[in-house]
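Methods — Computational structure assignment.
A single polypeptide chain was analysed. Its primary sequence is given first, followed by the predicted tertiary structure written as C-alpha cells.
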Amino acid sequence: MEACGVTHPSRRVTLLASAQVGKTNVELNVLGQIIDETPCKVLFVVPSLDEAGAFNREKLEPLLSNTPAVKARVKPLTSRDETGSTTRVKKFPGGQIELTGANSSKGLQMRSVPVVMLDEIAEFPFDVDGRGDPVAMAEARTMAFTGREKIIAVSTPGTKGSCRITARYEEGSRALFHVACPHCDHRQPLIFDNLRWPTGEPAKAEYHCAGCGAGINHRAKADMLANGVWVHERPELAEIHPSYRINALYSPFVPWSWIADQREKSADDPVKDKVFTQQVKGEAHEPRYDVPAHETLWRRREAWSAKRIPPGCLFLTLAVDVQGDRLEWGVYAFDRHFGQWWIDGGILDGDPNLDPVWLDMDEVIGRKWRDAWGREWAPEAVGVDSSYLPQRVYAYARRHAHRASPRVMALDGRPKWGEPPVGKSSPQDVDYQGRKIGMVQLWPVGTWDLKTEVASALRLTEMGPDASGTWPKGAMRFPQALAIDFFEQLTAEACKVTETRGGFESRMWVKIRARNEQWDLAVYCRALARHATVGFSDAEWAALERERLGPPEAAQADLAALWAPDLKAQAQAAVEAQALETERRASQVQAAPPRAAEERLFDGAEDFWGD
C-alpha cells in the first residue's frame, strides 16, 4: 500500500496474489487515501462492465458509506446534477474515480488520468471491440502525466503463457515475503513443496523449514507474519516497478490444514486443480491441451455391453447435435470424479426444419437405460445445441418446458475461456412462421474450458488401467461396440496456439477433421453433468452413491452388463458391501424403538429403516 500511494516514486506497482490474502483491501485503501489525502482522477478497470457494477455495489459503496473521512468528501449519487456522483463515477473535490470494464472500448478512451488501477488483469481480453489491447488503451490515458503516472495492477494469476499479472510480476522487482522459522530463525518465503502431512490426514499439516527441516505448526504463523519482510530479487526496481507475490500459505484467515485438505480434494479433478493452483497457490495454471490419437483410444475399449450402465456410474446426461439432414444424440454416465462412460447414441435422419425428426427425438428422450441391478435410469438433463436452426431448438425446448425429468435445455456454445460450464440463462423469443409463440430459456455453455477437460479425461483413457485393473479417476470409458470412426470424431479438434501482438500466447480450439459431432456431444454431456452437480457437497455425493451404487433388495443383477472381469469384481464388491450394510441395519432396527412413518429415513436403497 505504501508503494501504491501517489507520493511514492514508483510509476508501476504489481501485486500477484492468491485468494484470501486481502488484495481487494489494498485497492480499497488506496482509493480511500486518494479521496481523503491526495485527490486526483482515477480510472479503475475490471474485466467487464457487469463486474464494474458488482465492484461498486459490493466493495466501493460500503467503503464510501462506512468510512467517515471519505463519506464527507464524495458527492452524493444524483441523476439531476452533473456535479454529483453516479454508479460508475464517484466525484470528490480535486478528482474522481471512474469505473469501467475491459470489455468496453468507450470507457477506455476518454479523459486523461494520472492513476490507472487494473483489477483482476489476468481475466482481461486481449482485444476489445476490434480496437486492440484494453490494457494498452487504459495505460494510454496516462500519457499526459508521463513521469508522474501511477499504474497499479492487482490480480490472481490466470493461464500460463497468457497470464498478464505473471508477466508484469516478472518485469518488476519480484518481491517475496520472507518469514523467520520459530526454531532456527532462518528467513524464507513460504512455498507449497514445504507444506507436508500424512496422506489422508490434512489436519496434521505442518510447514517444514527450508533451513533446519523442523515442522512448524500453523499457530506460529501469526508471529511469523508480524516479523516478516519483503525481499526484492531485483532491488534496483523497488522504487521504479515494485512487484509483489504472495500465496494462501501466508493468509491469516485460513490454517495450513485447510490448504492441505483442499489439495487432497483437488488432486483428481482438473477443474478443482486449476482453482487450487490459481486461487490457493497463487500460480498461473498450466493446462494440457493435447488430445490422444484416435487409434489409441479405440484400443482402450472394454468388454462391457453397450446401452447398459456399468457399476460405478451415478447419473446420465443426454446431448443432441443438430445437423442439416439429421439429429445426432449421445448419452454418457458420470461418477463423482467425472469419469465419463459412453452409454448410447444414434442418428435420427430427417430435415430438422420439419416436425418428424423432432417427434423421433421425443421417443429418444423418453427412454431409460438399465443398470447392472435391473433398475432403469432416465437422464438427469437433455441439452440441445442451438447453434444451427436456433428457432427450431427453442421451439422444441419450449414444447418440453413442462417436463420435470429429464429437463430439456436449449444450449448456446460460447467459444471463450473462463466461462462456466453452464452459465446464467437468458429468455429468448420463440418464433413460429413469423409470429412469436412464447419464450424459452437459453443456457450458455463455456465450451473451450470444457474441451480442455475432455482432452484431459481422454489422456487418462490413453493411460489405461494399472496392473490391478484399476482405471485412473476421471477417465473416459468406452464399450467394444464402438467403431474407429467414432474415435476419429471424438478427436476431431485441437487447441491452436498463436502469439498476440503483446507477446502473450492465445489459444483456441479448432476443427482438424470434417466431422466432430462425437466431440461436441461429449462436451455438452459433460457441461450438463457439471451443471447438475454444481455446489454438491461430500454428503450429497455420498447420498447419491448410496442410492445408485448398491443393488435394490430382491433384485437380480443383469449379468450381461457384467461380462468384463474388472466389472464383475466391482459388482461382487458392491454385493458384499450391501450385505454388510443390510446386516448392520438389521442390528440397529432390533436395538432401536419403532418410529413413525414420517420419521423414517430413506437410505437410498429403496427400503426404510424399521420396515
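Note: The first helix runs from residue 23 to 36.
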